[in-house]
Amino acid sequence: MSEDWAAIEAPTMTDLDTLVDRWVDLAAGQRQHGSHLEADGNRDRIRETLARQIALSEVRVARQDGRIVGFVSYTIEGSTFARSTTKGLIQNIYVVPELRGLGIGSQLLDVAEDALVAEGADVVALEVMAANEAARRFYMRHGYDAHRVTLEKPVESDTP
């Protein structure tokens, strides 16, 4: 990695528009792997979510030459049910395509995991699209394995 990399850091509200753009890029890219999330159609909702996460210190960014080139968002899972573990959730992780494979994603993941452990997490979980082989390999190299599998099928309608 280049020597001019800044440390992974907490963003400020002045970074919000760029973070929203990066999330839209992430969501658009996931469509090729079967994601049902609309990218630009969720811009307002993710703006609210990311603003809250910035305020709660639940997001980190990677910068190169002042430009945000990646981010990770995370939280401790809430539940109405009693649980035997405290689960940390990696909600989103993204690195701009031209800089993938340089260790940025690994740094972002490490920072998020450390923050979740500091908040009391016993386990850390995340979701990945089943068709996204590269992402699945990335997470498996970092010790993640399937815990729960979601199955789905399209529902066809008989009505014209």
SSE layout:
Elements: H1 16-30, H2 43-55, E1 59-64, E2 67-76, E3 87-95, H3 104-118, E4 123-126, H4 133-141
Parallel strand pairs: 3-4
Antiparallel strand pairs: 1-2, 2-3
Description of the structure:
By secondary structure, the chain is of the alpha+beta class. 32% of the residues lie in helices and 18% in strands. It contains 4 helices and 4 strands. The chain has helices at residues 16-30, 43-55, 104-118, 133-141; strands at 59-64, 67-76, 87-95, 123-126. The protein has a 4-stranded mixed β-sheet, sandwiched between helices. Strand 3, helix 3 (104-118) and strand 4 form a beta-alpha-beta unit. Helix 1 (16-30) crosses helix 2 (43-55).
Structural class: alpha+beta
Mean pLDDT: 89
Largest sheet: 4 strands, mixed
In DSSP terms, counting alpha (H) and pi (I) runs of 4 or more, how many helices?
4
The string of secondary-structure elements, in order, is HHEEEHEH
Spatial arrangement of strands, main beta sheet: 1-2-3-4
* Total strands: 4
Q: Helical amount among residues, as a percent range?
A: 25-40%
Model regions low in confidence, pLDDT < 50 over at least 5 residues: none
Shape: globular
Fraction in beta strands? 15-25%
